[in-house]
Specification:
coiled coil, 7 helices, alpha+beta, repeat, ATG16, about 625 residues
């Protein structure tokens, strides 16, 4: 304690001495000079007093008389005058020194104020410096903790990589085993299908000859009438038969809304068509019920039946137009509902409109505004607006008439895969990989409702123009149903693998769902259950957003494959044809709503339009 007190006292003495030195050192010389002047003034006053005394003595002596005294008096007066002048000069110098002292005191005060300000600033800087040192210390400690955490995470990452490699090896083994099991299953299914086909053929062979015998007389009369017509007099017998066939047949367009069967055609018409083109019972059965898998000798006859619509609506097997749609991969395609125009979207961040009616390979318009690849495109029911989704977490609305960007909808935290109009043209619903569906009001350009699905959405559809029900397909293998009027979710439908696309029939009663296990499911929405599955040993879904499509009548289904082919099934479950033209995987197909045209895009830049004529 005594040592600390001694140090404290020494510190106080040192500070006092330092203050004394700072305050006295600058004025020491002035003070000494002033003291000398004061001493000198005192000396002069003493001398002046002596001279005054002597002067009085001299005056008293003068009063007594004498010449010598007059000289002494004059000398003393002269000396007194010089002393007075010197005294005046000293007073003057004293005044100057006093003024100098006052000026120096003012300067000292100013310096003292400046010094106090600097000391205050120095104290603040020291405080700030101490604070920064504390922060640096905290940051150093935080850095050390982060380094330790990073090392821990690196160790965990290494362990997870090893575990992942092990799991990946197991997955490959399981995939190989699954592939073998699938091959075995397909072989068993093929055998079952062969047996079923044999049974069907035997039943049909028993039924069809009786029908042919009952209607043979009417068929002969029809053929004779056709031959007698003047317009057909120069034609051959098969041509006349086909003319009769056209006259008596029922148009496939009249059968919209149901599945085509033999009962939908007049029996005489079927008989006439078969006899006109030289097709026997077995060949007709193969053509009608085995999707055209017949020998080459009957191929021309089967094609004739297909062309006239007796095996359903004719398939668009001919390439009408082929063009480079985008600078790189094409992702989406959609027909306009009111004109022969198709919209495509690709990885080059553009939506392009193509006028197919003019057979033009130059785009009618290029719609820009997206900052990432386009995932889907869709028109409203009037064809006036086009809606596109993108990998930049947004969706956009353009007007077709002036090709202007009207709305940009941002709010998702993942890429937006699909969008459809709800309550046209007021609202839009979007589905994203952020596991949500959002409903947007285009009048306020704002999200008015968010539905949390719990899984990435790959595609969605709405049941009607009012959008009362939204159907969405997800990565977790589920189809979800959302009723926006009651804000309730109906029962989900579970698929065997993740869902890549959805499409509704025109009457909104049937839904097709493309699944990643290389199948397409047909659902009856009135029962909410799968009623049919479409597959083929060569058919492979190309990607996680591959799009399948109904035709305008809802009787046929088309979907692209990883081998570059497009497979077309009828809703009875039979593969009708396979379209070639793409050299790489096909990502999306779209069937025109007002004609029998099919558009397709794939991993290459190419877009191909197929037609039935």
């Amino acid at each position: 304690m005594s040592t600390e007190e001694h140090v404290w006292r020494a510190h106080v003495v040192k500070c006092l001495r330092e203050r004394n030195r700072k305050e006295c050192e600058n004025f020491k010389e002035i003070i000494e000079q002033n003291n000398r002047l004061i001493d000198h003034v005192a000396q002069l006053k003493s001398d002046n007093l002596k001279l005054s005394v002597e002067n009085e003595q001299q005056r008293s002596a003068m009063s007594t008389g004498g010449t010598g005294s007059h000289v002494a008096i004059a000398t003393l007066e002269k000396k007194l005058l010089s002393q007075q002048e010197e005294l005046t000069e000293l007073h003057k110098r004293k005044g100057e020194n006093s003024q100098l002292i006052v000026d120096l005191n003012m300067k000292v005060e100013q310096q003292r104020i400046i010094m106090s300000e600097r000391e205050h600033s120095l104290a603040e800087q020291q405080t700030h410096n101490n604070r920064l040192r504390a922060e640096v210390h905290l940051l150093h400690s935080s850095l050390e903790e982060l380094k330790k955490l990073n090392n821990t995470l690196l160790d965990e990452h290494t362990a997870l990589q090893l575990a992942f490699s092990s799991l990946e090896d197991k997955m490959r083994g399981i995939q190989d085993e699954n592939r073998c099991l699938l091959e075995r299953l397909m072989r068993y299914k093929s055998k079952d299908a062969d047996k079923l086909n044999e049974e069907n053929e035997s039943i049909i062979r028993k039924r069809l000859p009786s029908i042919f015998r009952k209607r043979s007389a009417k068929l002969k009369r029809d053929l004779e009438d056709a031959v007698r017509e003047p317009s057909a007099s120069s034609n051959s017998a098969p041509t006349a038969g086909i003319t009769s066939l056209h006259r008596n047949s029922t148009s496939p367009a009249q059968l919209i809304g149901g599945i085509i069967t033999d009962d939908d055609f007049d029996e005489a018409t079927i008989n006439g068509a078969m006899e006109a083109i030289g097709l026997d019972d077995t060949e007709y059965i193969n053509a009608r019920f085995t999707a055209g898998e017949v020998c080459e000798t009957t191929r021309a006859s089967i094609d004739a039946l297909k062309a006239t619509g007796y095996l359903g609506q004719a398939n668009p097997t001919k390439i009408l137009l082929k063009f480079e749609a985008h600078e790189n991969e094409s992702h989406a395609v959609r027909w306009s509902p009111v004109e022969r125009m198709v919209a495509t979207g690709g990885a080059d961040r553009k939506v392009k409109l193509w006028d197919i009616g003019k057979n033009s390979t130059e785009p009618r318009a290029v719609l820009s505004g997206s900052s990432a690849g386009i995932n889907s495109v869709d028109f409203d029911s009037t064809g006036a607006y086009i809606l596109g989704t993108s990998n930049d977490y947004g969706a956009r609305v353009w007007t077709v008439i002036d090709n202007r960007l009207r709305h940009t909808l941002t709010g998702h935290s993942g890429k937006v895969m699909a969008a459809k109009y709800v309550q046209e043209p007021i609202k839009v619903v979007t589905g994203s990989h952020d596991r949500t569906l959002k409903i947007w009001d285009l009048r306020s350009i704002a999200c008015i409702e968010t539905k949390f699905a719990g899984s990435s959405c790959n595609d969605l559809v709405t049941t009607d123009s009012l959008g009362s029900t939204i159907i969405s397909g997800h990565y977790d293998k589920k189809i979800r149903f959302w009723d926006i009027r009651t804000e309730k979710q109906a029962d989900d439908v579970l698929m065997p693998a993740k869902i890549t696309s959805l499409d509704l029939s025109k009457d909104c009663n049937y839904l097709i769902c493309s699944v990643r296990d290389d199948t397409i499911k047909l659902l009856d929405l009135r029962k909410n259950q799968v009623i049919s599955t479409f597959t083929n040993e060569h058919f492979k879904i190309s990607c996680d957003f591959a799009r399948a499509s109904f035709n305008s009548t809802g009787l046929k289904i088309a979907c692209g494959s990883a081998d570059g082919a497009i497979y077309i099934w009828n809703v009875n479950g039979f593969l009708e044809t396979t379209l070639k033209g793409h050299s790489t995987a096909v990502n999306a197909v779209s069937w025109s709503t007002n004609s029998n045209l099919l558009a397709s895009v794939g991993k290459s830049k190419r877009c191909i339009i197929y037609s039935d004529s």
